[in-house]
Amino acid sequence: MQRIAGVDEVGRGCLAGAVFAAAVVLDPNKPIAGLKDSKKLSEKQREALALTIKRDALCWSVARAEPSEIDRINILHAALLAMARAIAMIDPVPDWIVVDGNRYPPVDLPGEAMVKADSQVPEVSAASILAKVARDREMLFLERLYPGYGFNLHKGYPTPLHRQQLMQLGITPFHRKSFAPVKALIK
């Protein structure tokens, strides 16, 4: 049996918070119904599927790259770093890796990058779900740390509400200082 790890990241376009990545190896003896790209699921569906994935997958991991790393190496390289970290935590080591997107992370394991893999490969759909649930939970935590920013609503994305709150409240230590809307407030 070939062990395929699906890998996906979440949060590249956000102004705040870490970029998260997950890696999942599904158990062929325990198929999980309803797997699809996390963006096509409701929050309630993602939460329920995340529990099932964690229970029934052969193995899974979630990793991250911090805002300071994003600012230092750029968002693309930080996303690839988060993916590499997630892959490194998978045990046993997968035989093949499928990454959502057009770039393959810096790992010495065979695999491929595939655009829209999160809609086509169940392992990548599962990774998409775990990464999204983990990041969304962190944004709920950040809203408790920094009430009023609306992290629970916009999840760090550059919505009009987020931009308005940035203008009113200023930046937090979790904002990505290299991103133009945040950088403009620093100057």
UniProtKB/TrEMBL annotation:
<dbReference type="InterPro" id="IPR012337">
    <property type="entry name" value="RNaseH-like_sf"/>
</dbReference>
<protein>
    <recommendedName>
        <fullName>Ribonuclease HII</fullName>
        <ecNumber>3.1.26.4</ecNumber>
    </recommendedName>
</protein>
<comment type="similarity">
    <text>Belongs to the RNase HII family.</text>
</comment>
<dbReference type="GO" id="GO:0005737">
    <property type="term" value="C:cytoplasm"/>
</dbReference>
<dbReference type="GO" id="GO:0030145">
    <property type="term" value="F:manganese ion binding"/>
</dbReference>
<keyword id="KW-0963">Cytoplasm</keyword>
<dbReference type="InterPro" id="IPR022898">
    <property type="entry name" value="RNase_HII"/>
</dbReference>
<dbReference type="InterPro" id="IPR036397">
    <property type="entry name" value="RNaseH_sf"/>
</dbReference>
<keyword id="KW-0540">Nuclease</keyword>
<dbReference type="GO" id="GO:0032299">
    <property type="term" value="C:ribonuclease H2 complex"/>
</dbReference>
<dbReference type="GO" id="GO:0004523">
    <property type="term" value="F:RNA-DNA hybrid ribonuclease activity"/>
</dbReference>
<dbReference type="GO" id="GO:0003723">
    <property type="term" value="F:RNA binding"/>
</dbReference>
<keyword id="KW-0464">Manganese</keyword>
<keyword id="KW-0255">Endonuclease</keyword>
<feature type="binding site">
    <location>
        <position position="100"/>
    </location>
    <ligand>
        <name>a divalent metal cation</name>
    </ligand>
</feature>
<dbReference type="Pfam" id="PF01351">
    <property type="entry name" value="RNase_HII"/>
</dbReference>
<feature type="domain" description="RNase H type-2">
    <location>
        <begin position="2"/>
        <end position="187"/>
    </location>
</feature>
<keyword id="KW-0479">Metal-binding</keyword>
<dbReference type="InterPro" id="IPR024567">
    <property type="entry name" value="RNase_HII/HIII_dom"/>
</dbReference>
<feature type="binding site">
    <location>
        <position position="8"/>
    </location>
    <ligand>
        <name>a divalent metal cation</name>
    </ligand>
</feature>
<dbReference type="GO" id="GO:0006298">
    <property type="term" value="P:mismatch repair"/>
</dbReference>
<keyword id="KW-0378">Hydrolase</keyword>
<dbReference type="GO" id="GO:0043137">
    <property type="term" value="P:DNA replication, removal of RNA primer"/>
</dbReference>
<feature type="binding site">
    <location>
        <position position="9"/>
    </location>
    <ligand>
        <name>a divalent metal cation</name>
    </ligand>
</feature>
<dbReference type="InterPro" id="IPR001352">
    <property type="entry name" value="RNase_HII/HIII"/>
</dbReference>
<comment type="function">
    <text>Endonuclease that specifically degrades the RNA of RNA-DNA hybrids.</text>
</comment>
